[in-house]
Amino acid sequence: MKKLISIIFFISVTLFAQTKNSSPFLSVHGGLHRTSIDNFDENYDSKNMFNYGGGFGIPLTRRNFLYFKFSYYHVEGQPTVYNWDENLNIYKSKVDGVSKFFYRTFQLSMQYRFLEYNKLHAGLDAGIAYISTTETSDRKDLNLNTWYPPTNTSNIGLLLGAVAEYDITPNFSLFIEPRYTATIEEKFFQDIGGFNLDFGFRYYLSILKNN
Length: 211
Description:
single chain; mainly beta; two-stranded antiparallel sheet; elongated
C-alpha cells in the first residue's frame, strides 16, 4: 500500500510540477476529532480526541485535486464495567486499569476549488475513508489483574468536507479543513466515523499553482 502511494505521488510530481495548470502539494495537519462511537466517553471521559497526520494532493485540472489524507489518534482512559445488583438492575462503575484506543483513517477524495480570490482559496471535497481501530484493556476484575485481547474494527465509509486556504508564499499556505466521515462497522453495527476540524500547512512543489 505504501509503495503504491509513493509511486503515484512521484509520477504526479514528474507529470505536473512543470505545467501551468497546477501543482502537487504535501500537507501536514493536526486538530480535533469527535467520534460517533456510542458510549465512547464512558471509558475515555470525552468523545473528543487530538489527531495529527499528513497527506498529498495530485492536480487533475486547475481546480480539481485527487487528495489523499492520513490521520492518527490515540487516547487512554479508565475502564468501565457493567454489573448487576441484587435486584438484577444493571449499573456501571470504574475499575483500576488502563484502556487504550487507537484510531487510524485513510481518506481518498476529490477536492474542487470553487473560490480563488487573491491569496484566499476555498474548496469542497467528497470521497471514501478507510477507518481502522484497535482497543486494548488492562484492568483489575474480581481482584485479579486481567489483560483482554485487543478488539479490532475496520470498515470503509464516505466523507464530505471543505477547505479554506491562505497563501503565505507562492509555495506555502495555511489551511483549515472541516470533514465528516460516516461508516457502519460490521462487527458491532455502529458508526465509527466522526467529525474532524483540522489545521495545517501545505507545501506546493511548483510556484505555478495560481497561474
